[in-house]
Amino acid sequence: MNKKFATLDDFLGTYFIYTYDNGWEYEWYAHNDHTVDYRIHGGMVAGRWVTGQEANIVMLVPGIYKIAWTEPTGTDVALDFMPNDHRINGTIFFPKWVQDHPEITVTYQNEHIDLMEAAREKYETYPKLVVPEFAQITYIGDAGQNNTDVINEAPYAGMTDDIRAGKFYDDNYKRLSK
Ligand code: FER
């Protein structure tokens, strides 16, 4: 948690846990300079997890980072990380169908891309639900870039507590044996 961020390289390969002020908890990993992985532990789509999501990742000024992407569901996400202050501002733009049928998206999305694309055609897009929130970062880890062990299993209740307590990952962000 004491890491100081100044360059884009400081940010890439970093793994975060954070809680939005509305209570939604996420894990998020800057996998490399163009993809992100995440797990969702709270909120409308708790249980959802995704790897290899293409994203635009830039540093705005030293230590402040902006990440934006659009998902196969049609959900759009824009995140501003201020890791030296342990804060994030995130805005998520949900198509109407995700609000109406969140359970469709609660899965390991990578294995169900066809289902997401079918649902976004079948159901309503508008009006979108905009969720703008600040978040508090509760954990920062240096996992290194292109580490496929960081986000590689489904979320479970208590997972983020296990991670913060050092019971989940080893020093290389591989899973400790159960
Ligand atoms: C975030 C990380 C991922 C976030 C949203 C997502 C707004 C994705 C959500 C989704 O796919 O439903 O910090 O916050």
UniProtKB/TrEMBL annotation:
PANTHER family, sorted: PHENOLIC ACID DECARBOXYLASE PADC
Family matches, as Gene3D superfamilies: 2.40.128.20
Lineage, highest ranks first: Bacteria, Bacillati, Bacillota, Bacilli, Lactobacillales
CDD domains noted in UniProt: PAD
Pfam families assigned: PA_decarbox
InterPro entries the UniProt entry points to: Calycin, PA_de_COase
Protein name (record): Phenolic acid decarboxylase
Superkingdom field: Bacteria
Active site feature: Y26, E71
Molecular functions (GO terms): carboxy-lyase activity
